[in-house]
Fold this sequence. Notes:
The chain is α+β, with helices and mostly antiparallel strands. 23% of the residues lie in helices and 31% in strands. The protein has 3 helices and 6 strands, in the order βββαββαβα. The radius of gyration is 14 Å and the shape is globular.
Amino acid sequence: YGVREERLRATAGLRHSSLALSSWRGRSGRRYIVGVHPLVEAEILEVTDAIILAVSRDDDGTAHVIDIATAGSRPSGAARTRWMARVRERGATEMHVHRLADGDRERRAIIEDLREDQEAS
């Protein structure tokens, strides 16, 4: 099936919850829980020690990963602002943030697992 979003059934019935969670299934079959946020500069500059997926949605709600970035412990505001502008131009409207990776090595492995196109940068 490849890389795909799999909505969490546990949060499906929560109508007024501020808890916006989803998950992504990697090429390996592993599942990664993410927080779903609008793609806005104020939020992206606050993310540290995480993986950020820039996501667009089709009219039917199907999510597509536009790009993936790693967020270290010291964010570069200028680099993130440039990245956000690039992914917005490509149609991204959401950022899905995975915070459960244990260190840079695991974050890099997850990014590789979630990339559809191995030639992407």
